[in-house]
Amino acid sequence: MTALTVDQMALVKATAPVFAEHGATITKHFYQRMFAAHPELKNVFNQTHQKSGSQPETLARAVYAYAANIDNLGVLGGAVTHIAHKHASLNIRPEHYPIVGRHLLGAVVDVLGEAVDQPTLDAWTVAYEQLANLMIGVEAKLYESASWSGFRPFKVIRKHVESDEITSFYLAPADGSSAGGFQPGQYVSVTRFVDRLGVDQPRQYSLSDAPHGKWLRISVKREAARGEAEPGHVSNLMHDGVGAGTVVHVSAPMGEFTLDRTPSTPVVLVSGGVGITPMASMLATLVAERSDRAITFVHACRNTRVHAFRDWLQGIAAGHPNVRRAVFYEQVSPQDRCGIDYDHEGRIDLARIESIALQPNADYYLCGPVAFMREQRDALIARGVDAARIHTEIFGSGML
């Protein structure tokens, strides 16, 4: 591997503002170039994110961050780990990186033209090789520790409606072997062929049960059309076309948003909407391990109709003195029972539940829409919680 010289590092860093200004244009063109030359890669990349522009924008931000910090890559450690888990879940392999590099650098030249001189292009070529080797090394360790390689056939042994929007699928290995282990909070990728697109499409779903080797459970929200956004291709296929006996292909569990099971200090799980899925796994694991940690489960949703795992959570809280819950309904309906289905009306407000949510030395796990997590994180920090004790999960695109 060729090492970046000091001058080349300076050239890459100097071009960071270019990606701030033109990055989305470059990355959108990059994907068009790459898919034209390698249409098989449409099976790997989320085509909905391509159409919405979120994937090109994510890549542009990642490239900008890399260029801006080329002389101090240590600050990108968390982002590298996050992306590596996404890549490993999608079975991104070393042979994909030269393809990406060739078309990414080609897109830079296509978009910027004569503004890119040869020394700058040479510097970016070496910089990309450095990044590719970094990612390949991190991903290799993930593959080595994974329960299996690539996508493995699983059979749906049970399908259970959790709410008007969320349905759970219990997945057991088609060959009858163990489902393997995972860390509560992790996710898997599931692929389905989408007729409308003519390609397989992977989607990542959090595991929503404790690890026990019998099955893996995912709980999928049906994504309806919103505004100009189309309904979710895979989520609707799962709800409407996948039942008991159907075989789906599943990646090994990945994800760095995981429950630390070693301390005895309190744990507070805060979720919004479908963000309840990894929290259900964390709570189920703590209960299965008969943990005596003080556990607070805080959840927000609209009302009973969309409240997944409602009866299960009621039973856990009633049967385990160390588990307390605080459920907020934003749109209470006449059939919703205060004190049974929910505890508070409105959005999550930590001021109303400080006595159970703010615990000394507690670890906080947040999952839900980005704005929701930002709001809860800010509220916790404002109340003196150490930011290092606040852990968040981010859904959506995050792939280089």
Automatic annotation (TrEMBL):
What are the residue boundaries of the FAD-binding FR-type domain, all occurrences included? 149-260
Q: What class of enzyme is it?
A: oxidoreductase
Q: Which organism is it from?
A: Paraburkholderia acidisoli
Cofactor(s) recorded for this entry are: heme b; FAD
- Entry keyword Kinase: no
MF (Gene Ontology): FAD binding; heme binding; metal ion binding; nitric oxide dioxygenase NAD(P)H activity; oxygen binding; oxygen carrier activity
In this protein, which residues make up the domain named Globin? 3-140
Q: Which UniProt keywords apply?
A: Detoxification, FAD, Flavoprotein, Heme, Iron, Metal-binding, NAD, NADP, Oxidoreductase, Oxygen transport, Transport
Q: Which reaction does it catalyse?
A: 2 nitric oxide + NADPH + 2 O2 = 2 nitrate + NADP(+) + H(+); 2 nitric oxide + NADH + 2 O2 = 2 nitrate + NAD(+) + H(+)
InterPro entries (alphabetical):
FAD-bd_FR_type (IPR017927), Flavoprot_Pyr_Nucl_cyt_Rdtase (IPR001709), FNR_nucleotide-bd (IPR039261), Globin (IPR000971), Globin-like_sf (IPR009050), Globin/Proto (IPR012292), OxRdtase_FAD/NAD-bd (IPR001433), Riboflavin_synthase-like_b-brl (IPR017938)
Return the NCBIfam families for the record: PRK13289.1
- The protein's role, per its UniProt record: Is involved in NO detoxification in an aerobic process, termed nitric oxide dioxygenase (NOD) reaction that utilizes O(2) and NAD(P)H to convert NO to nitrate, which protects the bacterium from various noxious nitrogen compounds. Therefore, plays a central role in the inducible response to nitrosative stress.
User: Pfam families annotated for this entry?
Assistant: Globin, NAD_binding_1
As recorded in UniProt, its EC number(s) are 1.14.12.17
Question: What family is it from?
Answer: In the C-terminal section; belongs to the flavoprotein pyridine nucleotide cytochrome reductase family.
- What is the designated name of this protein? Flavohemoprotein
Report if keyword Oxidoreductase is assigned.
Answer: yes
GO BP annotations listed: cellular response to nitrosative stress; nitric oxide catabolic process; response to toxic substance
